Amino acid sequence: MISMSDFWKKMPKPIMAMAPMANVTDMAFRRIIAKYGKPDVMWTEFVSADGLISPGREVLMKDLEYSEAERPIIAQLFTGHPDKMKEAGGLVGKLGFDGLDINMGCPDRSVEKQGGGAAMIKDKKNALAVLEAAREGSGLPVSVKTRIGYNKNQIEDWIGFLLEQKLPALTVHLRTRKEMSNVSAHWELMEGIVKMRDEISPETLVLGNGDVMSIEQAKEKVRETGCDGIMIGRGIFGNPWLFSGRIPSVEERLKVLVEHTKLYEKLLGKVKSFALMKKHFKAYVSGWDGAKELRVKLMETENAKEVESVVKSYI
After folding, report:
1. Residue 1 placed within a domain
2. 220 and 134: one domain?
3. Which end of the chain has fewer CB atoms within 10 angstroms, the N or the C?
4. pTM: predicted TM-score of the whole model, two decimal places
């Protein structure tokens, strides 16, 4: 197992990371991304630590399946219960992940009701207990993804507190929980966060997140703010080539859509709805004349075979 310091210190800078997105960055999509435009580090979708240690954990275990091509790969968990984080962290460690990340920023109400996600911003004592439990249980480098505050800017108090924990890496979504994604990300605040990091925990890598849709934009943000890297979320949707910098042809996009659909059906067809795959159709099929008509036909399909047939007739 790579030591905590080695894993992160070997990361090339600027670090380009793929954000964990529920029902988007599942193992089928991650394999496609690893093949066509691999980032420097990948995250799983966020997974409930409570669910992982419950009797019905088998479905959730699918969210923690990965291929060697995805390394370095980090499992992201959420919970408000230290004891459950410790046990789930042990499972993540045994599964051979390169790191564990704690979600301390998700605004979903069901996640917050459990004391996880953005609710942690309001309870530093419990956030620390969950972090320590993750470290003890997993034996892995434990990072955190969070926001700049709950209802207001709490960078000095909240981000300062997290930096005091000497994390190997901290990803900051540059909005508050209250703002959701309804306002532009506050990139003007990142320079101050980096200065805080330099004073409190120089070894901690700081990644920025929010509104970055391309590698060019990402590199520009790094130059402007001095952060160590960028985590891209929505920009990867329908664009597995994003981290490679390549711009695919329409035909390439459609062929990979079919490949992605077949892989989804093979890996996840028995545990997840085909309707989730259709989210990707909207992203793959856009931006050219005739895309809307093709998209309408694809949305009527019910399996990978039908998708392939529709695409073949179009190409």
Report:
1. no
2. yes
3. C
4. 0.95
